[in-house]
Amino acid sequence: MTVQERIWDIPGGIHPAERKALSNRTPIQQVPLPKRLVLPLGQHIGAAAEPCVVVGQHVRKGEQIAKANGFVSVPLHAPTSGSVAFIGEQPYPHASGMLAPAIVIDSDGLDEWIELAPHSDYRSLEPSELLTLIREAGINGLGGAGFPTAVKLTARPTQKIHTLIINGTECEPYITADDMLMRERAAELVAGIDILAHLIQPQQVLIGIEDNKPEAIAAVQTACAGRDYQVRVFPTKYPSGGEKQLIQILTGVEVPSGGLPADIGILCQNVGTCMAIHDAVLLGRPLISRITTLTGEALARPGNVEALLGTPVGELLAFAELDQGTLNRLIMGGPMMGFTLPSLDVPLIKTSNCLLASTAAELPPPAPAMPCIRCGECAQACPASLLPQQLHFFALGQEHEQLKEHNLFDCIECGACAYVCPSSIPLVQYYRVAKAEIRELEQKQLKAEHSKQRFEQRQERLRRAEEQKEAERKARAEKAARAKAAQADAPTTTAAAPADEALKKLKIEASMAQVALKKAEKQLAAHDTPELQAQVAELRVAAEAAQKALAEAQATAPAPTPKPAGDEALKKAKIEAAMLKAQLRKLEKLEAPDDDQQAELARVRQQLETAEKALAELDSQKPAATTKPACDEALKKAKIELAMKRAELKKAEKADSDEAALQPLREALAAAEQALHAAEATSGKPAPEMVRTERPGVDAELKALKTEVAFARADLRKLERDDNAASDALEQARTRLAEAERKLAEYQA
Fold first, then answer.
1. How many helices (H) and strands (E) does the chain have?
2. Angle, to 10 degrees, between the axis of helix 659-683 and the axis of helix 630-654?
3. What pLDDT, on a 0 to 100 scale, did the predictor assign at position 180?
4. Are the C-beta atoms of residues 382 and 417 closer than 8 Å to each other?
5. pLDDT at site 135
6. Cα(29)–Cα(319) distance, rounded to whole angstroms?
7. Is the domain of 677 the same as that of 741?
8. What whole-number distance in Å separates Cα of residue 455 and Cα of residue 461?
9. What pLDDT does 334 receive?
10. What is the DSSP letter of 326?
C-alpha cells in the first residue's frame, strides 16, 4: 500500500454544516427481524425485475424471487425465510407517494438460508463467470442512483480501464453509513476491492476519502497493507463524492461533457458496492441487506443499522426511538440531494443509504422564492462549471434546445446552487422538471420516428405487392390473349360473335362504373367536400349511362344458342361452378361485410345458381354411353368424403382441440370409412388391404389443467397492463393462476 498526497481541486463546491456526529458514535447495529417485508421489483436504474414466485409459495433466505428483466436489470432475493403473501402494487419510496409492483413476504421467524455456494478460489474463474456471480447476486451501486454493477463492469469503452477508483467520500451532511462500514469492515472492503482489481486488471487503484473521517482512513490504510492500493485523503468539500468530481480530485482529469468515466479509462465503485461483491463471491450471499444511517434530532437513538431490504421505514425509526411529536420532515438520503417521504409505510430498498428524521428547528422550511438578482453566487458554487442562472431562465421558458446546448444534463443535482441562492429559488427542482420534459419529448419523437418508419415500410410492402399483382395480371392477360389467338387459329373452332363480345364489354364497363361510384360515395360520407360531391355526381351519371347501354344491348341481343352438350362443355361448366363455390365460401367467412361485399355476395350466389342449373342441363344432355357406372361414382364420392373427414380430424388434433370437439370428428371419420367399405363391396373391385395406426390418446384432464393455466395467465397479464385495474381483481387473478399452476404440478408429479 502506498499513499500519494497529490490531489487536485474542483470548481465551486460549498461547506454546509455537518451533523455526522449524530450517528457515527455507536457501532453498526442489527435490526430485529420484521414480520413482513415489502420488496419493490424496481430498486435500481433499468428494467424492474420479473417475479418468479407465486402467492403462497414458501421461500428461504437468499432465494431468488424475481429474475432480471433485460440486460440493464438485476434479480431480487428473499431477505428472510417465509411465504409470499402478495404480489402487486405497494407503497414505494418516492416523493410522489406512488405505488409500485412489489413482492410481499411474511416472515416465518426462522431466518433459514438456502444452501450457499462461496467461491474462495475466484481467481481461477473466467471473467464471464465472475461477472455472472455478481449479476446473479442482485448487486447494483449502493452509493448513488443504483446502476447495475455487472453492467458497469461489462461495458467496454474505447480504451481499457487503467484506473479503478473506490469512492469512500460520503460528502453529504448527516450520512455516515460508508464511514462506519470502512471503520468496522475494512478487511472485507479490501477483499471486495481485490475481486474488482482481479476482474478489471487496472494499472492503479485509488481509494478516495475526505479528511473528516480519520478513523475510517486509518482502518483502510491498515487493511491495504501489502497491496499497492493508494489511499488518497483530501479536504472536505461538498460535493466531492460525485463521480466526475472525485475523478477530477484524484487524477486531475475531467470527464467530457455527456461522456462516461469509462470513456477515459476510469471506473468508480462505492465502498458499499465493494462490500456487497465480497459477500457475493467469497460468502455466496446475494444482496439482501444494507447499512443505513438513521439520524436527525427527532430520533432518541440515532446511528447506523444493518437492515434487511424491504423493512418498513416505520419499524427502523421505531428502533431508533422516533419522537412523532417533534418530527417535521422525513428525508430519504441527505438534506442536499435527498427527498421528503410522504409516509412511513414505504420499505427500505437497495439505494436507501439514510433516513433523516428532522425537527422544524433543525431543517426549517425555505423562505419564499424571490426574483433572481443576478448575483452569480450559483455559478461560483456549481461543481460542474455550469451557468445555473441561465439554465433557470431557459427552464422557465421551456427552451429545451438552449438547455441542451448549455449542458443541462451535466448537472448532478447536488443542490449547491440552491443552497447559496440569496433569493431562495429552488433551482434544482426547475432542472429536474426540465430534464423530465426533455426526456419525455425525446421519447415521443423516437416513438413518432419509429411509427413513421413502420408506415413507410408498410407502404413499400403494399407498393411491391401491388406491382406483383399488376405483373401477375399482365401475365394472365398475355396468357389469355395467346390462348384466344390459338383458339382463333384452330380449324375446329369458330370466332365469337361480335355481338357477344360487345355485350361482355358493356357488362364489364357497367360493373366497373358501379364499383367506382360506391367507393366515391363512401369517401363522401367520411369527408363531405364540394370536390367529392362533384365527383360523385359525375360517376353517378356515368354509371347510369353504362347501365342503360347494357340494358339496351341485352334487349337487342339475339337469344343465346345452347351450348354443346359434349364433354368439353360439361367440364367447363363444372370448373365454373367450383370456382363460384370457392368464391362464395370466401365471402361468407367475412365477419362484418360492407355494402360492396354484400352486393358481391348476392351477385356470386346468383351466378352460382345459374351455373348449377347449366351444369344440371349439360349432365342431362350427356349421352348415356359416356356416363360412368353409378357404383364407380359412389366409390369416388366415398373416397373423397373419407379424405375430407380425415383432414378435418388432423387439423383439429394439431390445434389441440379438447376431447368434446374431437369425438364427433372421430365418429364422422369412422362413418366415412364404413361408407367407403360399403361402396367398395358394391363396386365389384377387390377391397384394398388397409393398415391403420392410431394416434396415442389425449389425456383430457391434463389438457384441461393446461388450458386453465393458460387462461389464468392471460387474464392476469391483461389486468396487469390495465392501469385502472382494481387491486382486488389483480389479487383474485394471481390467486387463480397460483391455484391452477399448483393443480397442474400435482397432476404431473
1. 21, 17
2. 160
3. 98
4. yes
5. 96
6. 10
7. no
8. 10
9. 92
10. T
Structural domain includes residue 519: no
Q: 616 falls in which pLDDT band (50, 70, 90)? A: confident
Q: Which three cell numbers stand for residue 388?
A: 445555473
Please name the amino acid found at residue 273: T
Cell of 668: 364422422
Give mean pLDDT, residues 398-420.
Answer: 95
Q: Is 42 among the domain residues? A: yes
Largest Cα–Cα distance of the chain, in whole Å?
118
Find residue 295's DSSP bridge partners: 356
Q: Which helix (H) or strand (E) holds 730?
A: helix 727-748
348 is a domain residue: yes
- Provide the domain count of the chain: 3
3-state percent breakdown (helix, strand, coil) of the chain, nearest 5: 50, 10, 35
d(CA 198, CA 122): 9
Examine the fold and report which residue of 354, 381, 407 is the final residue of a domain before the chain moves on: 354
Cα separation, 396 vs 390, whole angstroms: 10
Q: For residue 626, name the pLDDT band (cuts at 50, 70, 90).
A: very low
Q: Which contiguous run of DSSP H or E holds residue 665?
A: helix 659-683
Can you tell me whether residue 347 is helix, strand or coil?
strand
334: nearest Cα among 241, 231, 408, 266: 241
Q: Are the CB atoms for 60 and 78 separated by under 8 Å? A: yes
**Helical ranges in 397-497 per DSSP H:** 400-405, 416-420, 427-489
Mean pLDDT lowest for which of 292-306, 428-442, 500-514, 674-688? 674-688
Report whether pLDDT(631) > 70: no
525 pLDDT tier (thresholds 50, 70, 90): confident
For residues 299-313, average pLDDT: 97
Please give the pLDDT value at position 3: 44
169: containing domain: 20-354
Question: Where is the domain boundary, 354, 385, 412?
Answer: 354
Scanning 237-312, the segments in alpha helix (DSSP H) are 243-251, 271-282
Element (H, E) at 304: strand 303-308
Contact partners, residue 315, CB within 8 Å, separation at least 6: 31, 34
- Find the mean pLDDT for residues 77-84: 98
- What's residue 161's pLDDT? 93
H/E element, 37: strand 36-40
444 CB burial (10 A radius; 0-12, 13-18, 19+): exposed
Whether 35 and 261 have beta carbons less than 8 Å apart is answered as no
Both 120 and 175 in a single domain? yes
Does the pLDDT value for residue 455 go beyond 50? Answer: yes
Same domain, 712 and 634: no
- 288 shares a domain with 197: yes
Secondary structure class of 148 (helix, strand, coil) = strand
Predicted pLDDT at 284? 96
| 207 and 154 part of one domain | yes
Question: Which residues touch 523 (CB under 8 Å, ≥6 apart)?
Answer: 532
When pLDDT is cut at 50, 70 and 90, the band that residue 629 belongs to is low
Distance between CA 48 and CA 25 in Å, rounded?
A: 37
Would you give the DSSP letter of residue 299? B
For residues 667 and 707, membership in a common domain is answered with no
* Residue scoring higher pLDDT (670 or 388): 388
The reply to whether 157 falls in a domain is yes
Single-letter residue type at 270: N
Do 56 and 162 share a domain, yes or no? yes
* Selection from 505, 513, 511 nearest residue 540 by Cα: 513
337 secondary structure, DSSP code: T
pLDDT(1) > 70 = no
- Residues 77 and 62: their CA atoms lie apart, in Å, by 5
Residue 144 near residue 243 (C-beta atoms within 8 A): yes
Shared-domain flag, residues 31 and 113: yes
C-alpha cell at 125: 474463474
Decide if 672 contacts 638 (C-beta within 8 A).
Answer: yes
Please, which pLDDT band fits residue 538 given cuts at 50, 70 and 90? confident
| pLDDT tens track for 412-439 | 999 999 999 999 999 999 999 999 999 9
